[in-house]
Amino acid sequence: MILKKIHARFYRYSVGFFVALFYPFLYYYSRKPERYAVMNQLRRYCSFCSSTIAGIFYRVKYEQPIDWSRTYIVCPNHTSSLDITAVNSALKNNFHFIGKEEFLKNWALSIFFRSVDIPVNRDSKISSFKAFKKGAENLKQGRTLVIFPEGKIPDDYPPRLNEFKNGPFRLAIELKIPIIPITCVNNWKIIWDTGLELGGRPGISDVYVHKPIETTHLTLDDADALKDEVFNIINQKFISGKS
């Protein structure tokens, strides 16, 4: 257990190290929205380096080829702090996250959440409204939106998929933007949440990118059905990966 806790802290500090190493470049590309695409490339590189040095590698499989010239709403499940870097590895276009506002206090992540990403207070309806409004604006400008529809990491261990929030599915239908479900199959086995309680270990993170679900034919009355469809797709893959 001691070695696992040391590994989790090592991974955490490796993220901070590479963000600090590339900070001058991240800062420059964070100053204007037209530079965010390069900032995301640097984010991918930081994710790759910090994971690799900790012995964590990402094995990404796609159900079918993705047209990365299009804009999407990406909905991954959430069981680990590795999920963000796993999604970074899977996406090949310009993107941004909606995430908890606590990241504004994390010096390694705050540069992203003060520029390309969108912080949200999950307990405030006003904050959620503003976050989704900003997300809609960014989507219209061609930036893919990543949002964890569970809203938080589940408390259960081993984890199970929490109920999804409605927001991303209503937004996808309103803007007629396809949804890409992503299943992070086993990140919880490598690092549980932040890893500081149960620790972490080297390993291969399996990430499965499902085929996009089109929404052009849907109305807001179909939002619950779309939510259930995405939930079932992710849950089926997640359960099969736990066995």
UniProtKB/TrEMBL annotation:
<feature type="domain" description="Phospholipid/glycerol acyltransferase">
    <location>
        <begin position="72"/>
        <end position="187"/>
    </location>
</feature>
<protein>
    <submittedName>
        <fullName>Phospholipid/glycerol acyltransferase</fullName>
    </submittedName>
</protein>
<dbReference type="GO" id="GO:0003841">
    <property type="term" value="F:1-acylglycerol-3-phosphate O-acyltransferase activity"/>
</dbReference>
<keyword id="KW-1133">Transmembrane helix</keyword>
<dbReference type="InterPro" id="IPR002123">
    <property type="entry name" value="Plipid/glycerol_acylTrfase"/>
</dbReference>
<keyword id="KW-0472">Membrane</keyword>
<keyword id="KW-0808">Transferase</keyword>
<comment type="pathway">
    <text>Lipid metabolism.</text>
</comment>
<dbReference type="Pfam" id="PF01553">
    <property type="entry name" value="Acyltransferase"/>
</dbReference>
<keyword id="KW-0444">Lipid biosynthesis</keyword>
<dbReference type="GO" id="GO:0006654">
    <property type="term" value="P:phosphatidic acid biosynthetic process"/>
</dbReference>
<keyword id="KW-0012">Acyltransferase</keyword>
<keyword id="KW-0812">Transmembrane</keyword>
<feature type="transmembrane region" description="Helical">
    <location>
        <begin position="12"/>
        <end position="30"/>
    </location>
</feature>
<keyword id="KW-0443">Lipid metabolism</keyword>
